[in-house]
Amino acid sequence: MIGWFVEVFSSNSDKARMIAILISALVAIGVLLLNQYFINRRTQKEILISKIEELYQASIEYEAKARELLKGINKGERDEKGNFYLNPEMIDAMNDEVHRMEMLVGLYFPQIYFDFDSLFAGPTLPVLEIAVKEKMISEDEAIDASERTKDNIRNNTQGIKRLCTKLMEQYRH
């Protein structure tokens, strides 16, 4: 095998051709590897951008569900104990969106810390705590709880939007 190789490339012009072929092959392999690297990077970035969009959609859904709850509070809908009526389906839907956002951030952006526990309906909705404990409350306490609930929801949605904006700036094209 080696004898054949030496015989085929015995002249200087054959050796020069062999070196040119080897260099061309190495350059082609290098270009192929670089191309694959850049394609993988672009694909990964596109996946992350789509997940940021999904996170933003979940935040919009969270905010929409929270607004539905606030509408009930603003209308002054109350149960027989005088507590604000809170639609349990909306509360569950709100919490589902928090779980979805938490999963997206945990899977695709583990380096980002965000306190999702504060978004769940319990800590977010002081009126829920009153309703669950079935407390009898005065009108002033009801208004205060309503205002704290509205403030918490506003602050939470602003925090989510800041998180999404930060991720968009970090991973934009």
What's the topology here?
Blueprint (H helix, E strand, L loop, with lengths): L1 H7 L3 H64 L12 H21 L12 H4 L1 H8 L5 H33 L2
Helix pairs in contact: 2-3, 2-6
What are its keywords?
173 residues, mainly alpha, 6 helices, 79% helix, 0% strand
Strand content: under 5%
| Backbone shape | rod-shaped
Gyration radius over CA = 30 Å
**Largest sheet properties:** none
Average per-residue pLDDT, rounded, comes to 83
> How many DSSP-defined strands?
0
- What is the overall number of helices? 6
In whole angstroms, the N-to-C terminal distance is 52 Å
Order of helices and strands: HHHHHH
Poorly predicted residue ranges: none
Percentage of residues assigned to helices: over 70%
Q: Which structural category do the helix and sheet elements fall into?
A: mainly alpha
Q: What number of domains?
A: 1
Walk me through what this model shows:
With 173 residues, this protein is mainly alpha-helical. The chain is 79% helix and 0% strand. Helix 2 (12-75) packs antiparallel against helix 3 and helix 2 packs antiparallel against helix 6 (139-171). The model has no long low-confidence stretch (mean pLDDT 83).
In short:
The chain is an all-alpha fold and 173 residues long. It has helices at residues 2-8, 12-75, 88-108, 121-124, 126-133, 139-171.
